[in-house]
Amino acid sequence: MARYRRLIIAFMLIAGVNLALAGGYWMINQGRINPDGSEIGYLQCLYMTVVSTFTVGYGELVPVTTAADRIYTMFVIVLGLGTMGYALSQMTAFVVEGDLKEIIERRKMEKSIAALRDHCLVCGAGDVGRYVIEELLATKRPFVAVDTDEAQVKKLAAKQPFPYVVGDATDEAVLAQAGIAVAAGVMCALPNDRDNLVLAMTCRQINSKVRIVAQAHDIKLSHRIKSAGADAVVSPQFIGGMRLVSEMVRPTVVSFLDLMLRDMDKAMRVEEVEVQPESTLAGTRLVDRIIANSDVLVMALREPGADKFLYVPPSNALLRPGCTLVVLGETDAVARLREAGIATGHA
Predict the structure, then answer these.
(1) Which residue ranges form the domains of the chain, and what is each CATH number?
(2) Residue 273 pairs with which residues in a beta bridge?
(3) Of 38, 29, 31, 33, the residue nearest 66 (C-alpha)
(4) Which of left, alpha, beta for 320 (phi over 0: left; psi -120 to 50: alpha)?
(5) Could you read off the pLDDT of 107-132 as tens digits, one per residue?
(6) How many CB atoms lie within 10 A of CB 258?
(7) What is the pTM of this model?
(8) CA-CA distances (angstroms) from residue 292 to 285, 295, 304, 315?
């Protein structure tokens, strides 16, 4: 609305000045008549004012015979032209600055996308994709949204800014613009299952190492999407069914998880942290580094190459290189722990 205020003021200024100057002509010409004997009305005076301020030059439409008439007419021309010049400059600025601002913001966003590494692509900002975007924003994970509906993406980005690309996610050029070649993951949240299948296949062909998670409304297509290159397929119907059961048999747990996800003061999440071979955590015990110096709760530990988890690991558990921790904690605390899991001791 602030952007349109200048435009509204410019139009109101033009109208107000012309109406006021026409009133001056009308007052000066009280008691005078036109050559045809008719009275000089306000509409005639307004017409005289408009053709003068807009420099149309149709002639003297009201009598300009005395020195006062000529002085007032010069005043109308000067004031009218000044008002028109100012109003036109505001209108031009409205158009030019709006386009220029959008171009600058778009280029800035393109540069930020080009600088991203190991980020996620959220393909589809619809009913499912918008919740994905909200969660990634809450957990401060780098990502780029891709959608054909520019208005929808802009509406989401207006609440909390994030980088996005407008285009068809199944198009290789659009994926390249979003940084698929250096991305760590792709979330296929397009409304059509077959589009998600094509998207998964395209992403896999471009980047063989990227992790792909796709949604599938039709359970029958799940194995096809996996065969096309997806690492995991999520069924909204299955998730919905599990939620219904959980609400019935474990309502307190569901309430706890809902409150945890919706808490605006603390972004508590269950996250995973991998211990890299050369990190400062590798070779230490759980009690030495994490329990003593971290604000997270370790819920499970998985040894390198193992399929099963060790739930609620003991405090003397050894953090072997390549093991994965499942932890509960605030986003910032988990981020610090993750950095420790990557950082080497050669600082």
Answers:
(1) 2-110 (1.10.287.70), 116-240 (3.40.50.720), 266-342 (3.30.70.1450)
(2) 325
(3) 29
(4) beta
(5) 899 999 999 999 999 999 998 999 99
(6) 10
(7) 0.61
(8) 10, 9, 23, 10
